[in-house]
């Protein structure tokens, strides 16, 4: 199996606070992957690491098997990040994309064909000559994606692409992500706090909680404390057969919930 990224013992601190703590994480190449987590879970920090815009305070990151402790220009060209708030350059939609090609030193003979291809991919051909600053938020996101796709990175990173978009623009962006990942020839990662939306796009997910990948579902996630066989939240007492005294979160897979009129002691089911 080929991995786009391999992270080992990666830690990132801000103001002496640990914001990302990944013991081991392997991201399969040529797969669409959703990074799930609430605000502050560490999603943006992870994406900045993967885009080689930030270095970890400790640990190792491998890009297609190669250690990138000191990134080289070719490493940066393999990745393309679309940030949460993409900046539109002066000029038209086409100008934005052509300037990106120029900055990436793509041969000029490929500019027009690349421009047409990425505009078709994000369904913005009709707006090629419109000033980018006049576009809606959803259209600007798609321009930003086209701008990155134009230099053909092997990895596309989309940080919170659906944030602050109405349902129409979210559906359009979902279509774009599906179109990009359909060929299976590019690794696509996008972050979101919406598990349902993520599962509609891809079955492959990473879930972050306070900077750590977790295997538990983010649905039915409760905060509280563990005492004996009971996990206490503000509203519920959850019986748990196993637990840790230091646990502060508990997650219950929806498929593991049983609805019963009998007390829990009358059955082997715990929830």
Notable traits:
15 strands; 26% helix; elongated; 271 residues; alpha/beta
Condensed summary:
With 271 residues, this protein is α/β, with parallel strands linked by helices. 26% of the residues lie in helices and 27% in strands.
Report on the structure:
The chain contains seven helices and 15 strands. With 271 residues, the chain is an alpha/beta fold. It has a six-stranded mixed β-sheet, sandwiched between helices. A hairpin with a 2-residue loop joins strand 9 and strand 10. Helix 3 runs parallel beside helix 5, helix 4 packs across helix 5 and helix 5 runs parallel beside helix 6. It is elongated.
Sequence stretches where pLDDT stays below 50 over 5 or more residues = none
Beta-strand residue fraction: 25-35%
Class derived from helix and strand content:
alpha/beta
Q: What does the overall shape look like?
A: elongated
**Rounded radius of gyration (Å):** 22 Å
Strand order across the largest sheet: 6-7-8-3-9-10
User: What's the count of strands?
Assistant: 15
SSE pattern, N- to C-terminal: EEEHEEHEHHHEHEHEEEEEEE
What's the mean pLDDT score?
89
Helix proportion of residues, in percent?
25-40%
Number of helices: 7
Largest sheet: 6 strands, mixed
- N→C terminal distance: 38 Å
Secondary structure: elements and pairs:
Blueprint: E1 3-14, E2 17-28, E3 32-36, H1 43-50, E4 58-63, E5 66-67, H2 73-77, E6 79-82, H3 93-103, H4 111-121, H5 137-149, E7 155-158, H6 167-181, E8 187-192, H7 195-201, E9 205-209, E10 212-214, E11 221-223, E12 225-227, E13 230-232, E14 237-239, E15 249-251
Parallel strand pairs: 3-8, 3-9, 6-7, 7-8
Antiparallel strand pairs: 1-2, 1-4, 4-5, 9-10, 11-15, 12-13, 13-14
Helix pairs in contact: 3-5, 4-5, 5-6
């Amino acid at each position: 199996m080929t991995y786009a990224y391999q992270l080992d013992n990666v830690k990132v601190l801000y103001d002496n606070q640990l914001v990302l703590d990944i013991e081991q994480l392997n991201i399969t190449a040529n797969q669409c992957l959703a990074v799930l987590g609430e605000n502050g879970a560490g999603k943006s920090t992870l994406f900045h690491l993967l885009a080689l815009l930030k270095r970890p305070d400790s640990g190792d990151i491998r890009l297609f098997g190669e250690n990138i402790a000191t990134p080289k220009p070719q490493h940066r060209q393999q990745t393309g990040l679309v940030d949460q708030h993409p900046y539109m350059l002066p000029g038209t939609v086409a100008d934005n994309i052509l300037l990106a090609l120029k900055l990436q030193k793509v041969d000029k003979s490929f500019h027009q064909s690349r421009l047409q291809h990425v505009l078709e991919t994000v369904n913005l051909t009709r707006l090629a000559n419109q000033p980018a600053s006049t576009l809606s938020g959803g259209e600007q996101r798609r321009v930003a994606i086209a701008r990155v796709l134009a230099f053909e990175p092997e990895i596309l990173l989309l940080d919170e692409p659906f944030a602050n978009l109405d349902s129409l623009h979210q559906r359009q962006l979902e279509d774009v992500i599906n179109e990009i990942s359909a060929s299976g020839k590019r690794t696509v990662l996008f972050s979101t706090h919406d598990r349902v939306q993520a599962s509609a796009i891809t079955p492959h997910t990473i879930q972050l909680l306070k900077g750590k990948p977790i295997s538990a579902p983010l649905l039915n996630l409760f905060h509280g404390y563990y005492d004996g066989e009971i996990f206490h939240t503000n509203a519920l007492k959850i019986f748990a057969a196993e637990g840790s005294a230091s646990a502060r979160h508990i997650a219950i897979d929806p498929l593991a919930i049983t609805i019963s009129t009998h007390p829990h002691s009358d059955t082997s089911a715990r929830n």
